[in-house]
Amino acid sequence: MKFGKEYASQMVPEWQEAYMNYDSLKTILKDIQRMKQRSRQNGGLKRAVTLYRAFSGLVQGQKKTPISPSKKDIESQYILVNSVSKNGSEIYETTFLKVAEEGGECEQEYFRRLDDEFNKVDKFYRTKVKEVIAEAESLSQQMDALIAFRIKVEKLQGVLQDSTQSEPVEQKQETTSSGIKSVPLGILGHVKLNKTFETPGSIIKNFVNVTGQTETFSRENLKKVEKQLKTAFVEFYLKLRHLKSYSFLNILAFSKIMKKYDKITSRRASTSYMRMVDNSYLSISDEVTKLMERVEDTFIKHFSNSNRRKGMNNLRPKTKKERHRISFSLGLFVGCSAALILALILIIHARGLLDKRGKTQYMENMFPLYSLFAFVVLHMLLYAANICFWRQYRVNYPFIFGFKQGTELGYREVLLVSFCLAALALTSVLSNLDMEMNPKTKEYEALTELLPLGLVLLVIIVLICPFNIIYRSSRFFFLASLFHCICAPLYKVALQDFFLADQLTSQVQAIRSLEFYICYYGWGDYKQRQNTCKSSGVYNTFYFIVAVIPYWSRFLQCLRRLCEEKDPMQGYNGLKYLATIIAITTRTAYSLYMGFSWKIISGIFSAIATIYGTYWDLVVDWGLLQRQSKNRWLRDKLLIPSKSVYFAAIVLNVLLRFAWLQTVLNIQFSFLHRQTLITIVASLEIIRRGIWNFFRLENEHLNNVGKYRAFKSVPLPFTGMKFKEEYESQMVPEWQEAYMNYDDLKTLLKNIQQIRQTRKQNAGVKRTMTLYRAFSGLVQRHNFPINPSRKESESQHIFVNSMNENGDRSYDATYLPLPEEGAECEKEYFRKLDEEFNKVEKFYKSKVEEVMDEAENLGKQMDALIAFRLKADILQGQSGESDVSEPKFEERKLKTVNANKTVPLDIIGQVKVNQTFATPASMVRNVVYASRMTEEDYIKENVKKVEKQLNEAFAEFYLRLRHLKSYSFLNILAFSKIMKKYDKITSTKASDSYMKMVDKSYLGSSNEVTKLMERVEATFVKHFANSNRRKGMNILRPKTKIERHRISFCIGLFVGCSIALVLGLILIIQARKLLDKKGQAQYMENMFPLYSFFAFVVLHMLMYAGNVYFWRLYRVNYPFIFGFKQGTELGYREVLLVSFGLATLALTSVISNLDMEMDPETEEYEALTELLPLGLVLLVTVIMICPFNIIYRSSRFFFLVCLFRCIAAPFYKVTLQDFFLADQLTSQVQAFRSLEFYICYFGWGDFKHRENHCKSSSVYKFFYFVVAIIPYWSRFLQCFRRLVEERDPMQGYNGLKYFVAIIAISSRTAYSLYKGFNWQITSWIFSIIATIYGTYWDLIMDWGLLQRQSKNPWLRDKLLVPNKSVYFVAMVVNVLLRLAWLQTVLNIRVSFIHKETLITIVASLEIIRRGIWNFFRLENEHLNNVGKFRAFKSVPLPFTYHEAANDHDN
User: Fold this and answer.
1) CA torsion, points 1356, 1362, 1367, 1368, in degrees to nearest 10?
2) What's the predicted TM-score (pTM) here?
3) pLDDT the model gives residue 1094
4) Exposed (0-12), middle (13-18) or buried (19+): which is 788, by Cβ within 10 Å?
5) Which 3 state secondary structure label does DSSP give 269?
6) Residues 1337, 1340, 1343, CA angle at the centre, nearest 5°?
7) DSSP 3-state assignment of 818?
8) For the chain, how are helix, strand and coil distributed in percent, rounded to 5?
9) HEC profile for 916-943?
10) How far is 801 from 1035, CA to CA, in rounded Å?
């Protein structure tokens, strides 16, 4: 993420105007950059020539010559920053000293704006700090009162008397004024309890006890006071966190913008400016940090019973994570809903339900029942869209609605609930589509008729369910707000209450549907689909009442706010709802009783209510139509950049407000039933409400922003993960053993903690007594000076020594207070800590030495590359026709460079280009053209190749440096964390001494890696990115792959479609009795083998997705092992997406091609449906070779390259990914045979009659052998090449394994085709040999198991899966699945399974075995890498220096 986006995303939304305006300053810098670029237009040749200067090296470049003081002073005098007092406040002014230079005015304007921004930020921060300090004083007084309250309630005098006998020291401390004073009970005479009458209960209680005496000092009141103060502390702590974040973010923003200025102007002004920032109040003020520490201590002691974890969980709630399972489930229900809607349309069309006699009865009785779910789902979908856009435009809706931190629902969760309800409702509709009664019983099916009622009851049960499932906090929040709406005048009106009441005013028809449910199932005859609701006077009366209830509730809320706030606008708002009540009552009367009078009255009042409501929506609720606004007819501040959106919303709101015209004018459509039209009109009002919601909350948010109201906000995003998990997640997997062993040290600390706790067992009363001591305040505590002598004595818990052993420096920490209880355990802790630190530093040193040596080597390679480039350009200049008036290239170059040393061309004679013949083309080219190649051809051909190789080498080298830097940072952080834990447990300050040693050690003080990284960046940008820094850094630091939620959603969508299609397939087969049709055998012989191909591919992809999931779970570095380009590897979600997408297409094709009988007229099957499987194979092929960057192009091409290398096995150097893919292909023999059948069936068969003669063709039989052998033969040739190259006899034994497998599979194929006892015996013998050989190789060589002397008997020393039984189960399953060939040799048949189905099952078992093999094979490879600290791939360098050159250098 770029800093600008990250900066905006972490702002407190309501304070965003108080932050530094990063974008405006960046805009000014772009203007400066354009000026600088214009001034440098004639400097192109000078920059180009620098590419030919002698390379200064990656290491030597760090030895900078010392800068003389005068030169340093001159360079730093670009700006002068002064502190000025103005109007009693300190502000900062920057003077730009280079105004006379070209573009100086623009830079001066930049610094003026920069000063304005900084002064604004500093002023705001000072103001807010003063506010929180004042609030801290108030909270301190509240705490004194709380402690006195506790004493009074608990009758502490008795407790003190009992404790003084056993604890005389404590008594002395409690009574002396110089020590810790006790709180005076007299404070209770100066305070009183605040009573709020916000609920019906409190109002009634106050009315009843108005003259009576209430018990003030009760335990009930104490709990209430503690709860209120606890909430106040949590909110106060959140304010402090916001302030701390505000300070940090703004300082970071000023640092970033000044670095950009330095980069654009090539100045060093950032040092001076940031020195001023660092010395300002914004940076040096530590009031907020100290207040946070004090609040933490107070909260943990007084509200968490000294349980730090519990207290910090309350103060810092965990950030809500966006779960991918939500996206997946959402996609699943969307897929199911889409499939159900499609099925509903097809069933209505196929069964002609719209023409059935019972359609009218269905629409009058069943349709209103199901329309309730349509209204609810539509409203939820619009609310989800609201949340999506509120988040996009950073509207702080959780704060506005008052949601508890971390419990608010995101748009994905709302969509999940809505589509789940939609899927249930659609399933119910599909189950209840009968338009005619049962002719025997003369009734409809009772169970299906009760489905809508059952669904309503289910929704109600879920809503009131007390268990913590299905978003309980959100359900209870909704129910509480709903209850507040019902009891409107008796509750204090909050925004969420009147917002919900407004939503209910748009759900009048849904509430009427609930009334119809009661009438229909209570007094109607649901078995006959008959009711008398419309003719009932009671029903008609409630038809009025239920429509008025939401508006009446809203009217009462306005009345309460008018009484409380004395705001006349609430009266006008209430009048609006009263007018709407009259309008909706008259419209209801007209719809029930008709008549011209009712029509006129309803029209008049509806028009008045519409005009009133529209004005209120646009002017008051949305804050628009401000004529004098800078955004004419809108408002000054807008969140959406496009103003047309607001005008479109205004027009839509007005139009949808007039939906009542359908009722008043009685508009009907012949093709729409009356109930359908009512539902559409009601849906339009819900859509209007959804639009209104967004702009209403936008206006509320902007009001909060204008007043800096940010008391409740979403917690910051980087606080959820525990350090241990973060530490492990950021390790380089192959170096994990070289990192500090955090778990062991933490275990030792737990032992120390237990000893300390045991020592304090008898001090319980003493700790309890501290709860009643006078509160020392949140602010005053920081003013107490610390006695220096005491500080020094506290720090002397350990003594750290540096020693030299065998030429290596090591560190030893001596624990001083040995006589204490438990000191032996602490001594052991420091011994272990020293071991870990020495291990880490030794590893880091060795790795730094390696990269320094490699940097020297890369420096020499760069010299050779520059000479190569220079020679190529000279040759090009000699061969081409040059302009007469222009000097020669060499002359121009030498004149321009002047004193800058160029690289000598004779270096080309000292090096040779490394020629690697890893491909067939390179081998042929070397043989044919090497002798005829001129020097010019040689240079030109190799320059690009050399540049490409060095490009890769630099990128890989930079990755090593990044890993080393991360290694250093993570370990230092780990030592800091573990020492802080030690300090907390032992109440000492040993971390200061130890971390001082860490900071001074090579690990903490070495900057070679950082400097090397800077040098590599500069070199790479200049020589390989044409000085385009962004392009160069994108290559050196590829963007991290983001786990997109749309992937999870699409997986769910395809999974839902696949499940629906499978169920549909089963139901179609059962309904049409396809298994009993005459053409079933013909279908299985011809069509089934075609579709089984997709089953094999999908199953293998699913197994691979499972492999990737578990590799990630156990941190197997599969991208490195396979050699994927950084950021292009597919995760398990992407693989699942592709596999289920293919499964959906294949299942759709199968369902479209289920005819078992030919067309009686043409006596042929439908050609289009018969060609579907071939079309799908061609589609997959086209996608695989598609050159466009869609559908994971890099992964597709990677697969195709590896596949080609497998086919051309002996001609390519064998890499792990090549032989791994070849191993996968050996498990897909039946898929290859299916492809062979495709060619035979569609090429020479009669697909229109489903006939083929493949089995009787000798050519087909020949290739039946060949396609089965190809994967094994490819693997055999790979082993042969590796045997020749590596001289490793194990490759010969491995090749022998595949050769035996070839004989075994050939003999089994011969037996399956020709039968015969001899073939059976031969296949038996070779299959047994191949199975034993293969199983041995799998378990011992590929998986590295069955090591008898291992510390994990019969496994291996290192295991990634904690449960050892997994390995034994995997071995047994591997052996059993290896014996699947027995079905072929023994000719096993199952009566109820077709032969082709049995072949498919056996082939699938082999694919499953391969999937299991994959995991343990890569686990073993990863552990080998870990054992050798292999975390980088070796990139071959292009040049080799001759010995003479080396001697000359020496």
Assistant:
1) 100
2) 0.75
3) 96
4) exposed
5) coil
6) 95
7) coil
8) 70, 5, 25
9) CCCCHHHHHHHHHHHHHCCHHHHHHHHH
10) 44
